[in-house]
Amino acid sequence: MKANTPSERLVNGIIKENPTFVLMLGMCPTLAVTTSAVNGIGMGLTTTAVLAASNLMISLLRKFIPDGVRMPAFIVVVASFVTIVQMLLEGFIPSLYDSLGIYIPLIVVNCIILGRAEAYASKNPPLPSLFDGIGMGLGFTLSITCIGAVRELIGAGQIFGRQILPLADAAAGTAGYEPVTIFILAPGAFFVLAMLSAIQNKFKLGAAKRGIDPSNPDACGGACASCGNSMCKGKRG
């Protein structure tokens, strides 16, 4: 049975079931808008707002939505919140609105949002559903911000628009960093996603070899009699 406390839902979305690096969901915006860290955090927070609001609303309406029209009803709810967020971005943060472009309305069909609505919000009470949406959204935000930061650093020597690595100046004859521009192009998204996923998998494999379940670090792997973890909930024989 899935844990339903707010803190557990947050940890689940950020670490255990991270939508980008673990579930591999939402690849379209992940690969398309992460040309910079600002774009990544902007898309992530926009998606988080829609996720949290739609999860809460769908959970409140779960007993009133007939099974036969479940998915269309979910899409109507999500589309309503996406429209509100899109109008707010256009009115208050037009630069971010222009950068994200068509990917803002495409949040309506983002598989992370529809997946959480179907798998969790439609079956659980409002408060856990709200925090499930926040956790998944923050996990998505963290992931694509990291991808955007790496792409921006390697591809332009910048992070959040600030020059970190001094660029070479041929006219002045000064040496400096030569940007690898492929990283801010489409193929760079695949390279960085693969690299960060490989790093995460390396940590997971290392933990597995030591007999630690990455999704449950308090578990003793069945050897409860010799377990020295005071937090372990298993029975020691």
List the main descriptive attributes of the protein structure presented here.
2 strands, 237 residues, 57% helix, mainly alpha
List the helices and strands and how they pair.
Layout lengths: L5 H11 L10 H6 L4 H24 L9 H23 L1 H7 L10 H9 L6 H31 L1 E2 L2 E2 L22 H24 L28
Antiparallel strand pairs: 1-2
Helix pairs in contact: 1-7, 3-4, 3-6, 3-7, 4-5, 4-6, 7-8
Shape: globular
Which series of helices and strands comes N to C?
HHHHHHHEEH
The strand line-up of the biggest sheet is 1-2
The biggest sheet amounts to: 2 strands, antiparallel
**Number of alpha- plus pi-helical segments:** 8
What is the rounded Rg? 21 Å
Provide the structure class.
mainly alpha
Could you tell me the mean pLDDT? 86
The portion of residues assigned to helices is 55-70%
Q: What percent of residues are in strands?
A: under 5%
- Counted up, domains total 1
β-strand number? 2
Low-confidence segments: 221-226, 233-237
Could you tell me how far the N terminus lies from the C terminus, measured between alpha carbons in angstroms?
Answer: 24 Å
